[in-house]
Specification:
The chain is α/β, with parallel strands linked by helices and 314 residues long. It has helices at residues 23-26, 32-44, 63-73, 90-99, 113-120, 125-138, 157-167, 193-210, 221-224, 278-284, 287-292; strands spanning 2-7, 49-53, 77-82, 103-107, 144-149, 171-176, 213-216, 238-242, 247-249. The chain has one domain: TIM Barrel, CATH 3.20.20.70. Residues 304-314 have low confidence and may be disordered.
């Protein structure tokens, strides 16, 4: 598969507590003409699918036109990755389906109303997100939920999957928090991988029980152990990312794991594992990977000032 991943702009209708997008970034966006040119170039180079994301793509007034243009160019699949709030009005979701969107991903952050509204910093948003998911299910488009493994949400992961199942959602991807850009100093938002693994393992068991497909995007295969087949690497395929600032391959993104540490040497899973993200390695070092491999740690985390270093629950 060859995918064109277009970040239309950084503006959004919520302001999540762990978001990497700062106020200055929100003003930057691709013009309609620039997106159309990127689509034409990608099709000429053999790209078959396109993903439209942000920021929040559904607040773009040209979104429907861009979807229709992608279909006219012959893109096989069109994906929209969104927080889903505007899908609470079913007509909005219906228009996107009719225009040609066949894959919907919705970021749910967490399933609990008060916690969700606090995390997105917009009262009343949880109801819109829930109604949006329900509308997508009713339209028969098989939406996927993007669930964040943040320090406060990971312990509620199993309950989130049961909640999603009750809505009719049968797919979920687990995303890890990134300490980059506007979230660079929010150390408390990023838990250790070994601290979230018990919740992830329980989630896999519940997913199997309920018939939900659950994948992880940022956990190395050695920590997943017998669940290594649940590791999903979007950059394993040919993915070109177009942003308001740059064009690059997804494999080189700072949000993609791309660092193999000494403990990775000789690992049978290394060919299919990208290792660790740079921001995680800087925060916690390689001790968890080394322990999983039965080796001594060789990479120390970057030392943070004591006044900024959060207490990590163990």
């Amino acid at each position: 598969m060859a995918l064109l991943d277009v970040i239309l702009g950084y503006d959004c209708n919520v302001a999540c507590t762990y978001c990497t997008i700062g106020p200055a970034m929100r003003a930057r966006a691709l013009s309609t003409e620039r997106v159309a040119r990127a689509m034409r170039d990608a099709r000429a180079r053999g790209y078959e699918d396109v993903s439209l994301t942000g920021g929040e793509p559904t607040i773009r007034p040209d979104l429907l036109g861009l979807v229709r243009f992608a279909k006219r160019l012959g893109f096989r699949g069109v994906k929209v990755q969104s927080n889903g709030l505007l899908y609470a009005t079913r007509e909005n979701a219906t228009r996107l389906v009719d225009a040609g969107v066949d894959t919907f991903h919705v970021s749910i952050h967490t399933h609990e109303p008060a916690a969700y509204d606090a995390m997105v910093r917009r009262p009343g948003s949880w109801r819109a997100m829930r109604d949006g998911l329900a509308n997508l299910v009713a339209l028969g488009v098989d939406p996927a939920a993007d669930v964040i493994l943040e320090a406060t949400t990971a312990p509620r992961l199993v309950d989130a999957l049961r909640w999603l199942h009750g809505l009719g959602v049968r797919r979920a991807d687990l995303w890890s928090v990134s300490l980059t850009d506007a979230n660079r100093d929010n150390f408390a938002s990023m838990p250790r991988m070994t601290d979230v693994m018990p919740f992830v393992r329980d989630a896999f068991a519940v997913a199997d029980e309920l018939g939900i497909t659950v994948r992880t995007l940022h956990l190395p295969r050695c920590l997943l152990a017998e669940h290594a087949d649940r590791a999903h690497d979007p950059a394993a395929d040919r993915v070109m990312v177009v942003t308001p600032d740059d064009v690059f391959e997804l494999s080189g993104s700072k949000l993609t794991p791309q660092v193999h540490v000494p403990a990775c040497d000789g690992c049978p899973d290394r060919p299919g594992c990208r290792g660790l993200r740079p921001d995680y390695l800087e925060r916690f070092g390689d001790a968890e990977v080394a322990a999983a491999r039965g080796l001594a740690s060789m990479v120390a985390p970057t030392r943070l000032p004591p006044t900024r270093l959060p207490v990590v629950a163990r």
